């Protein structure tokens, strides 16, 4: 597998998906298109990379930072981790869009949170939680998880 080519392809796919999400998030088909195609494609690519790079792994490797670092010793392993980030950050963005629509969060505030989520993952999600709390007075409840 040409890891550099896969890296370029998944980055382009993610960039296009995030632009689509930012610009067309109000369209009803946006979530379906992105989750059903882009996220699915990233997940399939992740599974293939994981299969190709999964070797004998000592379970102890997950118990220390040094052990975890040793698992990232190849380009394929790093690519697999990167695809994991891309897929889950996009899922977080899709969730934020649906949640923001339910709670009347403005397009501009949501867009700011989406940009941060695209670039910094959890920081963008945290920013969204702060924005939602500021706009609705509620940080989290079972009702708001939908």
From TrEMBL:
<feature type="transmembrane region" description="Helical">
    <location>
        <begin position="32"/>
        <end position="54"/>
    </location>
</feature>
<keyword id="KW-1133">Transmembrane helix</keyword>
<dbReference type="Pfam" id="PF14108">
    <property type="entry name" value="ABA4-like"/>
</dbReference>
<keyword id="KW-0472">Membrane</keyword>
<feature type="transmembrane region" description="Helical">
    <location>
        <begin position="6"/>
        <end position="25"/>
    </location>
</feature>
<feature type="transmembrane region" description="Helical">
    <location>
        <begin position="74"/>
        <end position="97"/>
    </location>
</feature>
<keyword id="KW-0812">Transmembrane</keyword>
<protein>
    <submittedName>
        <fullName>DUF4281 domain-containing protein</fullName>
    </submittedName>
</protein>
<dbReference type="InterPro" id="IPR025461">
    <property type="entry name" value="ABA4-like"/>
</dbReference>
<feature type="transmembrane region" description="Helical">
    <location>
        <begin position="109"/>
        <end position="131"/>
    </location>
</feature>
């Amino acid at each position: 597998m040409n890891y550099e080519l896969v890296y370029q392809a998944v980055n382009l796919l993610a960039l296009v998906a995030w632009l689509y999400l930012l610009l067309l998030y109000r369209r009803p088909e946006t979530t379906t298109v992105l989750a059903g195609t882009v996220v699915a494609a990233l997940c399939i690519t992740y599974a293939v990379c994981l299969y190709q790079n999964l070797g004998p792994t000592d379970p102890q490797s997950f118990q220390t930072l040094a052990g975890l670092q040793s698992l990232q010793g190849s380009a394929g392993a790093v690519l697999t981790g990167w695809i994991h980030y891309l897929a889950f950050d996009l899922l977080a963005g899709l969730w934020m869009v649906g949640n923001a629509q339910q709670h009347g969060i403005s397009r501009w505030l949501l867009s700011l949170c989406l940009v941060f989520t695209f670039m910094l993952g959890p920081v963008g999600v945290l920013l969204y939680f702060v924005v939602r709390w500021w706009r609705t007075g509620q940080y989290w409840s079972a009702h708001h998880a939908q």
